[in-house]
Write a structure and sequence with these properties.
With 992 residues, the protein is of the alpha+beta class.
Length: 992
């Protein structure tokens, strides 16, 4: 038996212990039959009826067909595409795409496409009123993640990821979804129920960010429908909607010849096709299909205002004053969008465009890192809503001299348009793209069916095709001779030519900038700046030239964990490593290094440095590598440097490839033992954190992001967001003092899992983590008394925001616990919170007409003995905050007084069962559960009970948990109110 089969076999053994169905075993192939087969059909097996000779997606294109997809058309005009994909095992992803969004509405119908999305979930031929969520939950689908819908300017897509797909559950799912789109009820009562929810969603999306988005659309797309066609609509058109007017929009666009059904999953394509034909085949359109409306094209301004005949004339400019948002500029050069022939030459042009943009962006980033006039700047080309082909230039200035920031960015772009890049610059970006195209080839057997389905949806939306990863890589590599300096120069010039250039500037103070001043700044000629071009290094950095971390050391112990094929290595310096080679995930290796004591090991007085570390620790460099050198040394490689701060540990994480594993290990180990302390990343992080701070106050959600964790952790300053005044007190010397200590103290646990060879990994570990100096103990966090929790109170803490006056948020939280000994109870709490969420969603939507914002979640810090909580929250209007608290209290007390019904439990436990079962098909799932297990081996045992803990319970157990944690005098509350209405809550407004 091969090593890979042994891995699958041992995983299957564990899943049996977990009572996970065999189909969750890691599949060796995305289309393999490993796992439980779909239930046999009682009739003769279906045969594919798709058109394999002339698939509709590829007509007129020379793009190689992705043969995994099978494309068909029915007599009623409905098109479909189906494919087999076994990732995750047992799941089938269904997408029903309607080729109509907000740009298809008339003036009086604004918001109807999105309103219809809601109403189709409300009631239809096979779904009783308000029963859609429960219907899909019974099939194991979780609302919001497995079941959802999206309305954009150009399409409406209904999405379902069906776990544990069987013949009967698939039949039922297609039945329900066909009834939704082909026979919705659309009654007056449905409209009455859904309209307040849509209006609440409009309210929740308001605020400064929405004002900026709206202003940007009006300026950039002036004269086109897109300038005023947001999917959410307007209050006037929505409140004027009638069943008749909504049905008129529905009948115009919801017709089979305007719909595509896309299915990818762990089933025979012919069987999937049979369900499409069975449930959508009888749907008939009425009348002729209407032509799609014109989306218009960008219009050049009257008169010419430019500094170069090759550039687009400068048109509309606007300055928007938003005191809580950072200053920022967006310049857009627009060209008409045209339906393209999606062929190989067209895609080679896109590749050349991508190289041109990458070169400019690298130059801009280099200039920003050096401490220029702007914090960030970037160039990005997009085809927007089939309305315009746009090149966007975004700039975040530093300080008040916005003219200098804009001039410096324009100067870099002017240089790129004046003189061709070097071949070395092109080769660097080509190497990066090569890796980006190669990784999907290596990992195509583990690409989820949901992603493949979504990729096809997006291709339909932009009127293009899809190609298999192998073909994309082959075309790219065959095209490399085309990527010459002259070609890149030509494409760079094309990116900044067009019909019109428009711009918008968001500023914090009125009067500092005017529309005319912004326009003049764009017209002013600039001198090309070649200083940002990356010099060719005659002695490029490479891993073999980097200093050794220390003397290589062999592990002193190599022991099996008893769990799957996971082994634990121990080094004399105290470093412990968990190894799990699994070749069923080809081309992907994950490396995690947990170290130190996390947030609670930082002195409270040093708390601002925690935030700055998240911004700047990685960028501060290591050994003799600064940011530029780190970029260079990773060129053409798949390497990462994700850094996170947890309660009781810090973590470095990367997804890499087998051939890059040894060098990835060096980067992480060198960060701990050979840190470098460049000042510029610190200063840039400090500026970014200060700019970011004011933005939190623009909405209730922003305030919660800023302060909720601080209050949940008993106002421990280490969990606060530092203010600009606190940031001003930080210094590079302080940053080095805090983080050099954090990097050098506490245990080190390394995880390596995925496609790697143990015989290669161990020598690499010996040279890196095995060579580290012995570590000092980190500050202890084991004392429960050190973990502060909020005091119970019925009087809410009140925070304020500067956003729209009709926005507020309410939070109620009950402290629970923590620690690995309580892991199994924490999983049972997840069941309780799901029950609470379902009840809260129903109750608050009925009482307050809110959207989908109410939810309840449980946190349980495994590394600490306290600090967990059950938290319920929702975005509501200010007057409804007390109603939310009252409703949450009533639900909590009812859960204490009365056990949930068996049916209510089933609506929660079945989706949880499917979530765990699907997750169990991934190595990441198990390794996430085992974080910290090298110092706390009890976590190994709790893996075996995961499925049981999350799904097996009784109404009485839920009632007992509610009584233990949801007591009437156990909670504390927080409200986020508009600044001018804060006093209405009757509570003291917090100064934070």
């Amino acid at each position: 038996m091969t090593k890979s089969m042994r891995a699958a076999s041992s995983l299957a053994s564990l899943l049996v212990l977990m009572q996970v169905p065999a189909q969750s075993v890691l599949a060796q192939d995305a289309g393999s039959d490993l796992g439980a087969p779909l239930e046999a059909s009682p009739v003769q097996a279906p045969v594919l009826q798709t058109n394999e000779d002339d698939p509709w997606l590829y007509r007129g294109s020379d793009i190689p067909r992705d043969k995994g997809w099978h494309f068909g058309e029915m007599d009623n005009g409905l098109r479909y595409a189906v494919r087999k994909n076994g990732v995750p095992p047992g799941q089938v992803s269904i997408r029903v795409r309607v080729d109509a969004g907000s740009l298809y509405e008339t003036d009086s119908e604004r918001g109807y496409a999105h309103l219809l999305e809601h109403m189709l979930f409300r009631q239809s031929k096979y779904i009783e009123e308000g029963q859609a969520i429960a219907a899909f939950q019974r099939l194991g689908a979780t609302f919001g993640s497995d079941t959802n819908a999206v309305t954009s300017t150009t399409q409406t897509v209904f999405q379902l990821d069906l776990p544990n797909a069987t013949a009967s559950s698939l039949d039922e799912t297609f039945k329900l979804m066909s009834g939704m789109v082909s026979a919705p009820t659309l009654s007056a009562s449905n409209l009455k129920q859904d309209l307040p929810i849509v209006l609440a969603e409009m309210r929740e999306r308001g605020g400064a960010a929405k004002r900026v988005q709206d202003a940007m659309q009006k300026v950039f797309y002036a004269g086109q429908p897109l300038s005023e066609r947001e999917p959410i609509g307007t209050v006037q058109t929505l409140t004027s909607a009638t069943p008749k007017s909504v049905r008129a929009f529905y009948q115009r666009w919801y017709r089979p010849d305007n719909v595509t059904v896309i299915v990818a999953g762990d089933a025979d394509p012919a069987m999937l096709e049979s369900y499409v034909r069975k449930w959508f085949g009888s749907w008939q359109a009425k009348g002729a299909k209407p032509e799609a409306p014109s989306f218009g094209a960008p219009v050049a301004p009257k008169g010419y205002a430019g500094n170069n005949k090759e550039l687009a004339p400068v048109g509309e400019t606007r300055v928007l004053v938003e005191p809580d948002l950072p200053p920022g500029m967006m310049v857009a050069t627009l060209r008409p969008w045209h339906q393209v022939i999606d062929n190989i030459p067209y895609n080679q042009g896109l590749m050349t465009d991508a190289i041109a943009q990458a070169i400019i962006n690298r130059r801009l980033e280099s200039k920003a890192r050096a401490g220029g006039s702007f914090l960030t700047a970037s160039v990005n080309q997009e085809d927007v809503a089939r309305s315009a082909d746009v090149t966007f230039v975004s700039v975040t200035p530093l300080g008040d001299n916005w003219e200098a920031a804009l001039r410096d960015v324009r100067a870099v772009i002017a240089d790129a348009m004046t003189r061709a890049p070097t071949q070395a610059e092109i080769d660097r970006e080509v190497a990066e793209l090569d890796v980006a195209f190669q990784v999907p080839v290596e990992q195509q057997r583990i690409l989820p069916g949901s992603k493949l389905a979504d990729d096809l949806v997006n291709a339909l939306d932009i009127r293009e095709t899809v190609a298999a990863p192998d073909d994309v890589l082959r075309i790219f590599r065959e095209s490399k001779p085309l990527f010459t300096p002259d070609a890149v120069l030509e494409h760079t010039r094309q990116l900044f030519s067009g019909t019109v250039t428009r711009a918008m500037f968001t500023t914090q103070e009125a009067g500092k900038v005017t529309d005319a001043a912004l326009r003049q700044a764009l017209i002013e000629p600039v001198k090309a700046d070649a200083t940002a071009r990356l010099a060719v290094n005659s002695d490029p950095v490479s891993f073999d030239k980097l200093p050794a971390i220390g003397a290589p050391a062999q592990p002193v112990a190599d022991t099996p964990t008893g769990l799957l094929d996971i082994e634990e290595l121990t080094f004399a310096n105290g470093v412990k490593v968990m190894l799990w080679p699994v070749t069923e995930e080809p081309g992907r290796v994950v490396v995690k290094a947990r170290f130190g004591g996390g947030t609670r090991s930082i002195a409270p007085g040093d708390s601002p440095y925690i935030t700055l570390g998240q911004y700047a620790l990685v960028g501060s460099g290591l050994a003799n590598l600064g940011q530029e050198e780190l970029d260079q040394i990773a060129t053409g490689r798949k390497m990462g440097f994700e850094f996170t701060v947890d309660d009781a540990a810090f973590q470095l994480k990367a997804e890499t490839r087998p051939q890059d594993l040894a060098d990835q290990l060096y980067l992480f180990a060198a960060k701990l033992d050979l840190p470098r302390w460049d000042v510029n990343p610190f200063e840039r992080a400090k500026a970014a954190a200060k700019i970011q701070y004011d933005t939190y106050a623009t909405s209730p959600q922003g305030v919660l992001n800023r302060d909720l964790q601080f209050y949940q952790r008993g106002e421990d300053p280490r969990f606060s967001t530092p203010t600009p005044a606190e940031l001003d007190k930080t210094t590079p010397e302080g940053f080095k003092r805090v983080w050099s200590k954090a990097l050098s103290e506490g245990p080190v646990e390394v995880q390596i899992y995925g496609d790697f060879d143990k015989a290669v990994a161990i020598p690499a570990l010996e040279k890196t983590f095995g060579a580290l100096k012995s570590r000092k103990p980190a500050a202890s966090t084991a004392d429960p008394a050190a973990v502060a929790v909020p005091k119970p109170s019925e009087k809410p803490i009140v925070l304020t925001h500067h956003g729209d006056p009709d926005q507020a948020a309410a939070v109620i939280s009950w402290p629970t616990g923590g620690g690995s000994m309580g892991i199994r109870e924490s999983r049972q709490l997840e069941i309780l919170t799901q029950i609470f969420t379902n009840r809260l969603l129903d109750a608050v939507r009925e009482k307050l007409g809110v959207a989908y914002s109410p939810y309840v979640y449980s946190s349980w810090p495994v590394d600490l003995q306290a600090g967990g909580s059950i938290t319920a929250m929702a975005q509501v209007d200010p007057k409804s905050v007390p109603v939310f608290f009252q409703t949450a209290d009533e639900i909590a007390q009812d859960l204490i007084a009365n056990p949930p019904s068996a049916e209510e439990l089933q609506l929660v436990t079945e989706p949880l069962r499917q979530q765990v079962t699907r997750a169990a098909s991934s190595t990441a799932f198990f390794m996430n559960q085992l974080e910290g297990a090298t110092s706390d081996p009890s976590r190994l045992g709790t893996v075996r009970t995961i499925l049981y803990d999350y799904t097996e319970t009784t109404p009485e157990k839920m009632q007992a948990l509610a009584a233990r944690y949801l007591g009437e005098n156990a909670s504390w509350r927080l409200a986020v109110m508009p600044q001018d209405k804060a006093g209405e809550s009757g509570a003291v407004v917090a100064s934070k």
